[in-house]
């Protein structure tokens, strides 16, 4: 079997998605997500100019060899653009292998370790009361785990809070919008949110929160400690993960579980955090961390240290990534939780898929391959629209982390 062609499809059914499609001489094709939010066209160029020419004529069954060829062969290792491109190829090749074998990809990964993938939904609102009301809606829909984000009194807008309470799309403008941030105001409101949420939602539902890289280690330690009485499932991205010694300070002050890694692009970004047991959940996902092949290695390494997975699943990861993540999630022993932000109807129509939500769990597609496709005619109706994530400034104008 040979790869005879590959193309990159860019579509914007409400937000931008980049998809790689690899075709073979036997008529079987595979699809892979290649979306890197706000930097989409860098990946398009990397794939078109530097990856696709190397794929033509290769045997698509040699998934690991092609992975190594693209990783080692580039000389310039790692980085989000490279690893997203490699991930897209990897997804296509697993899709092809599954279709040829007549098996869903999870069977090729060792079979199911569980019947469904527990997911968390996003409840947000401008006030604590609004957020809890939305969380009640999620609970009524069957969600067993809910992320809580609320507006910060005195700030016009903040990460995780949208006008549409059930959908959130941060890449909202053709030049970055500017948000204003106050750590002091934020640290006052979050423990109040969790206190009210635990009282209203009961003891059983898992509650999560994303700090989105905004605290210093000692501030994160304090927030973790303040949240302990309400037993959060995790506190995510409490600090930036560049200087990873930061996490030691958090650990010294709180038993609130720590999740990190949605922007990690390989095992090497996570290795020290895992090996030193400074985190509890690793959020790297298929599209940004080198595909199913690389994420399997990362998860196996994490398992040795009792670190579980919590794959990123925001709307900027396409349904192709979600399908791939589900095959991965059901097949590993140390699965923790999967984020599920839900795509819009327009996006779901462009990417017909076989996964479905059922009582708090996503069920993995059973069709051969990944069980997801792209409707190219429909995709062509939604041309690319430049869109950026916001930037954040302190009240005195200093540029901060978003
Ligand atoms: C999450 C994330 C997202 C990111 C987005 C950036 O936890 O889901 O933090 O909301 O901000 O994916 O592209
Ligand atoms: Mg996050």
TrEMBL record:
This is mannonate dehydratase. InterPro entries: D-mannonate_dehydratase-like (IPR034589), DgoD-like (IPR034593), Enolase-like_C_sf (IPR036849), Enolase-like_N (IPR029017), Enolase_C-like (IPR029065), MAND (IPR034587), Mandelate_racemase_C (IPR013342), Mandelate_racemase_N_dom (IPR013341). The keyword Membrane does not apply. Pathway: Carbohydrate metabolism; pentose and glucuronate interconversion. It catalyses: D-mannonate = 2-dehydro-3-deoxy-D-gluconate + H2O. Keywords: Carbohydrate metabolism, Lyase, Magnesium, Metal-binding. Residues 128-257 form the Mandelate racemase/muconate lactonizing enzyme C-terminal domain. The lineage of its organism: Bacteria, Pseudomonadati, Pseudomonadota, Alphaproteobacteria, Caulobacterales. It comes from Asticcacaulis aquaticus. It comes from the Bacteria.
